[in-house]
Amino acid sequence: MLTQIPIQINYIYACNENTSLSGEVNVTAFTRLQEVLDITNDEQGIVAYQLTFGIDNNGIFFLQGMLSTTVTLLCQRCLQDMQKVIASRFLFALLRSEKESLAISDEYEAFWVDEESEQKEMLNVFAIIEDELLLSLPFIAKHDKACQPLLEKMDMEVKEQPKENPFAVLAKLKTP
Q1: What helix, strand, coil percent values describe the chain, rounded to 5?
Q2: What is the H or E stretch that residue 168 is in?
Q3: What pTM does this model have?
Q4: What's the rounded Cα separation, in Å, for the pair 59 and 133?
Q5: Phi, psi of 125 (to 5 degrees)
Q6: CA 66 – CA 48 distance, rounded (Å)
Q7: Which residue, 1, 73, 143, 165, has most beta carbons within 10 Å?
Q8: CB distance 88 to 133 below 8 Å
Q9: Termini Cα distance of the chain
C-alpha cells in the first residue's frame, strides 16, 4: 500500500496487482480546486483519499475510491465563510474500447482511458481526485442552518436609520 499519491500510475499494472493507495494531500495542491475555493488563508483542509485498483470477475479493470475533506466556501446567502464537509465515493470501470463498455454493470461509472496517447497505460490519479472533489462541491454554497441573507441585513440597517424630511431645506427658505 502506497501512502504518497503519484501523479500518474500504470493502471494495467496497478489493476493486475490489486494496488491500493491511501493518504492525505493538502487542498492547496489542487490548482483548479484552489480557483473555485478562492483560498486566502493557510488553514484549508486536508484531503484524505483511498484508491483501490483491481479486475472484477468479468475482466473489467476498475478503480474504486473514497475522498473526504473539509473546505471553506463563501455562503451565497449571507456572504460569510462556511465550513463544508466534502465526501465522495466512486467506482470507475476503466474502459479502453466500445466492446468493454457493453460488458459493464450498472454499479460502474464509465471512465474512458485514452488509448491514443503516447502513455496509453498511464492514468493521471491526481487529476481524477481533483475532478471528483470539484464534482462534489455544492452548486450553490449556503449554510445548512438558516442564515440571515445579506439583503435582509442591509434592509434592517436602512430601517434603523431615522429618515430625514426631504423638505426640511424648504422650511429654512420660508422663514424671513
Answers
A1: 30, 30, 40
A2: helix 168-174
A3: 0.74
A4: 28
A5: -65, -40
A6: 8
A7: 73
A8: yes
A9: 94
Q: Which residues contact 124 (CB under 8 A, 6 or more apart)?
A: 7, 8
Listed by start position, the domains of the chain span: 8-145
Buried b (16+ CB within 10 A) or exposed e, 99-122: ebeeebeeebeebebeeeeeeeeb
How far apart (Å, rounded) are the C-alpha atoms in residues 148 and 77?
7
**Greater confidence, 117 or 46?**
46
pLDDT (mean) for 116-126: 75
31-40, 71-80, 87-96: least confident range: 31-40
* Residue 141 contacts residue 81 (beta carbons within 8 Å): no
Burial of 169 (0-12, 13-18, 19+ CB in 10 A): exposed
What integer is the mean pLDDT of 59-71? 92
pLDDT number for residue 2: 43
Residues contacting residue 89 through CB under 8 Å, at least 6 positions apart: 65, 66
> Is the CB of residue 136 less than 8 Å from the CB of residue 36?
no
* Closest among 50, 67, 48, 64 to 15, alpha carbons compared: 64
